[in-house]
Amino acid sequence: MTPDEFLRGLPKAELHVHIEGTLEPELLFEIAARNNVTTSYSSVDELRAAYEFKNLQEFLDIYYEGAGTLQTEQDFYDMTLAYLQRAAADGVRRAEIFFDPQTHTDRGIPFDVFLTGIHAATVTAERDLGVSAAPIMCFLRHLPAEAAMATLEASLAHRDKFIGVGLDSSEVGFPPEIFTDVFAKAQAEGLHLVAHAGEEGPPEYVWGALDVLDVERIDHGVRALEDATLIQRLVDEAVPLTICPLSNIRLGGFARMEEHTLPKMLGLGLKVTINSDDPAYFGGYVSENYIQTFEALNLSLDQMVTVARNSLESTFLPETEKRKLIGELHTYVTENRP
Ligand code: HPA
Ligand code: ZN
Q1: In the structure, which protein residues have their CB atom closer than 6 angstroms to any atom of ligand 1?
Q2: Which of 51, 153, 168, 309 has its CA 20 to 30 A from that of 102?
Q3: Integer Cα distance of 110 and 158 in angstroms
Q4: At a CB cut-off of 8 Å and minimum separation 6, what does 1 contact?
Q5: pTM (two decimals)
Q6: 100 alpha carbon, closest ligand
Q7: What is the pLDDT of residues 18-51, one digit of tens each?
Q8: How many angstroms separate the alpha carbon of residue 1 from the centre of ligand 1?
């Protein structure tokens, strides 16, 4: 088995993927056609050619336009199942999947439509693909806290179909503290808490996510390296960081994969995981992120196994299920390590 094959089959969890960011141009155009909606792009090739981003905002503008083609429960089901099929082929045993409700409710598409479609695909995947999957609802931080609170309240009728809440969209200028009350209410409802922080925003936003929102994982967190006290805190509390290497390159966080600070993070003892973020836009699913990171940064296979183990340990699964998956990882490594 080659190292690439070994990395692809490595039992892993994906903890940072936006379902709307898995919508491949081919499916996007198919869905747009059946819904009789148009986009600013006339073909799959023209759309793909537009995937050149200087920063997060340039990406978000095109990502929200793509998500605007989704209308029916079937659309959300098809998109989610397509992602889960790719995830299964990438060794993913557990996927905790972000969705952006406000991108849909603000277009008049109710929770009943998108969450039912997404959830139904997770049920199919669990039954047919051997992938356990659970949605996490993200609030758009560029919209007011009142809108996030209204979204949380509307979501509670579907409390059984998602496991937690997160915070995404444009980071700089929208610190976590804005959403203090929303996260407190979500916590009181027994939901898990995560937040994007330190992707483009400063280390202070990571502190805010931890101290004020009380999140259990930090999404991205690459800029935490600028603050030694913060690093110590993240290490001491073993706070998982959901790193998305290809996303960081595509959005300008690092010029080249060779410059990514992931090896430094591992060396510091941070609980690093590797994820795809928006794979349809950033050039690769989770295994591609493992492979490109491994090759460009001269990581060892032991380090990659540590990353996979970190991902399984950082899921919101019950302890017994985590142990089972970690056992599966050990068996896989023993039998297949090149
Ligand atoms: N950052 C913030 N918001 C997002 C992202 C991201 O990487 N992907 C989709 N929404
Ligand atoms: Zn993200």
Answers
A1: 18, 21, 56, 63, 168-169, 196, 199, 247, 277-278
A2: 51
A3: 11
A4: 9, 336, 338
A5: 0.98
A6: 1
A7: 999 999 999 999 999 999 999 999 999 999 999 9
A8: 34
Cα separation, 43 vs 186, whole angstroms: 41
CB 192 within 8 A of CB 136: yes
pLDDT score of 234: 99
Q: pLDDT of 232-284, one tens digit each? A: 999 999 999 999 999 999 999 999 999 999 999 999 999 999 999 999 999 99
> For residue 253, what pLDDT is reported?
97
What is the CA(23)–ligand 1 centre distance, in A? 14
8 Å CB contact between 35 and 75:
yes
Strand partners, 133: 95
Give the ligand 1 atom nearest the CA of 21.
Answer: 9
The residues annotated as belonging to the active site are 199
